[in-house]
Design goal:
Blueprint: H1 9-26, E1 30-31, E2 34-38, E3 43-47, E4 52-56, H2 59-64, H3 71-75, E5 83-84, E6 90-91, H4 99-112, H5 114-133, H6 135-146, H7 151-169, H8 179-188, H9 193-209, H10 215-225, H11 233-260, H12 271-278, H13 288-310, H14 315-332, H15 337-349, H16 352-370, H17 374-385, H18 390-407, H19 411-422, H20 425-429, H21 433-448, H22 456-463, H23 467-492
Helix pairs in contact: 1-4, 1-16, 4-16, 5-14, 5-15, 5-16, 6-8, 6-13, 7-9, 7-11, 8-9, 9-11, 9-21, 9-22, 10-19, 10-21, 11-23, 13-14, 16-19, 18-21, 18-23, 19-21, 21-23
């Protein structure tokens, strides 16, 4: 008997899509009325099945409709998509979807998510060009030479740098390229390969877990939730700092034990094998040219944040910034035109799978919308959570997202698949939709530390560390972070 294996994320999403098509035959169609803000007339527009009606845009109007959202969020543009009006659900004539709808769904999804997909592809091209210049590797290698005698700073700076990459632009798969460069540096500092692995992988995981400007999670999830990605960013930054401190302290504690006595290493039996494999490699040097490249790369995200926050930029403008950054880096790196083009395309192609996942997942939402079952599911979910305590509900979502991420490890795929359904639940429970986005981030982020369908197995293969040894190392940290997440989630719903 052949062993069962979990399909890839695109295949699994297609299976879900087929399942949703079947559900349109089983679940009654239904719809809520929705409300949107008209900035030109300064009014609310209530959309029902047959009519649209304009009413005065006041807080009293929102209160009378039992919409627990401040008026300022509509006026400022934080909520710019139509939102569900509680207690307006009505059952409608069923609209079951067929095989043709299933085949069209991914195509419709790709078209609907074109703005997000192009951002992903251009960002992939930028990262590909950055990797070609060697700026990433050189920047991290430079740390090893300047921190001699202060090796603990190597852990702090490496983990912090990777965390910043994870929280800003979703640095994850790209970290695989860092291990051959970093491991010799950490071994020379009398650490073991586990410390190097932890500094990179945990840094990336905690960064994406508390994403701030990450287009692959926070921006996509917020967009799908109908809110601005800057909503709740202040608390997210604070929690990111606290979680990073917890992770760094945990890694340093283990690293000091290994420095004091190599026998304390969880991979001590592989010490000679790992040293023979990695100690022959030489770190790159960070010269003026690579420094300038790193400055340009960092500036892309500074410009993006400023543009979105102050100039009303969105996906077209953000994508343009990353494209311009890639061209400028190619110029500074004196990359041949043909090599630049092929490198950029290769970098973009490495994220093509992510782009398709976004499209397929968006297609599932389209099938649910066309079959008009989304609101029916939402109605029954809201009925289930109507009397649930806010803190209990939010923490329950963290565990739900953690479990789902085993089957859908793609953060972008998870966001566009679930947010249209889960985000409106915040309106019925009584807190901001950014809390739902945070629960999604926390749940996926926590499970990413150990998720075998994610990136960890590929990273362990490069470092030559067994999955069982990694679990022994990281499980206590996961438990610490779980307690931390439960506390901050319970506190967040009170604001």
């Amino acid at each position: 008997m052949k062993k069962f294996s979990i399909p890839s994320a695109p295949s699994f999403l297609l299976i879900i899509c087929a399942f949703v098509v079947i559900l349109t035959w089983l679940i009654p169609a239904g719809a809520y009325d929705t409300i949107s803000y008209d900035s030109e007339d300064i009014t609310f527009v209530i959309h029902s099945q047959d009519t649209d009606k304009k009413i005065q845009a006041t807080q009293h109007t929102l209160d009378s409709l039992q919409i627990v959202i401040p008026l300022e969020k509509f006026i400022s543009g934080s909520i710019w998509k139509p939102i569900t009006i509680p207690n307006t659900y009505q059952q409608l004539e069923s609209k079951p979807q067929n095989a043709i709808a299933f085949l069209k769904a991914p195509i419709k999804g790709v078209i609907a998510a074109a703005d997000i997909i192009f951002l992903v592809l251009i960002l992939g091209g930028l990262i590909g060009v950055m990797n070609y210049t060697g700026a990433f590797d050189a920047g991290i290698s430079w740390l090893g030479s300047v921190l001699k005698g202060k090796e603990y700073l190597l852990i702090i700076l490496t983990t912090t740098a990777i965390t910043i990459g994870g929280t800003t632009f979703g640095l994850a798969e790209e970290t695989i390229a860092f291990y051959p460069i970093l491991i010799p540096i950490f071994l020379a500092a009398k650490y073991d390969a586990m410390v190097a692995l932890a500094s990179v992988y945990i840094g990336s995981s905690v960064g994406t877990m508390f994403s701030t400007t990450n287009p692959f999670s926070t921006i996509i999830a917020s967009d799908s939730a109908g809110i601005n990605w800057t909503d709740g960013i202040e608390l997210r930054i604070l929690f990111l700092l606290l979680a990073t401190i917890i992770c760094i302290a945990y890694i340093i504690r283990y690293g000091k034990k290994v420095q004091k006595s190599p026998e304390n290493s969880l991979i001590f039996d592989q010490k000679k094998e790992i040293e023979a494999q990695f100690m022959k490699l030489k770190p790159l040097k960070l010269n003026l040219q690579l420094r300038l490249i790193l400055i340009v790369f960092t500036s892309c995200f500074v410009v993006m944040i400023y543009g979105v926050s102050n100039l009303e930029w969105w996906f077209v403008e953000m994508t343009t910034v990353f494209f311009a950054g890639a061209v400028l880096i190619g110029f500074l790196g004196q990359i041949n035109e043909k090599i630049f083009v092929s490198t950029f395309i290769k970098g973009a192609s490495e994220l093509l799978g992510v782009a398709f996942i976004i499209g397929i997942a968006r297609g599932i939402s389209i099938v649910m919308d066309d079959g008009m079952i989304s609101n029916t599911i939402l109605y029954h979910a809201s009925e289930f959570t109507a009397d649930m305590h806010q803190g209990l509900f939010a923490n329950l979502l963290v565990f739900i997202y953690g479990g789902l991420s085993f089957f859908i490890p793609s953060s972008s795929g998870m966001a566009v698949l679930t947010m249209p359904i889960m985000a409106p639940l915040a309106d019925t429970v009584g807190f901001g939709r950014e809390i739902i986005v945070n629960c999604y981030l926390y749940g996926m982020g926590l499970f990413a530390f150990i998720n075998p369908t994610g990136l960890i197995l590929a990273s362990l293969a490069i470092v030559n560390v067994g999955y069982d040894k990694w679990l022994k190392f990281v499980i206590p940290l996961v438990l610490y972070l779980l307690v931390f997440v439960i506390i901050i989630t319970s506190i967040s719903v009170q604001f």
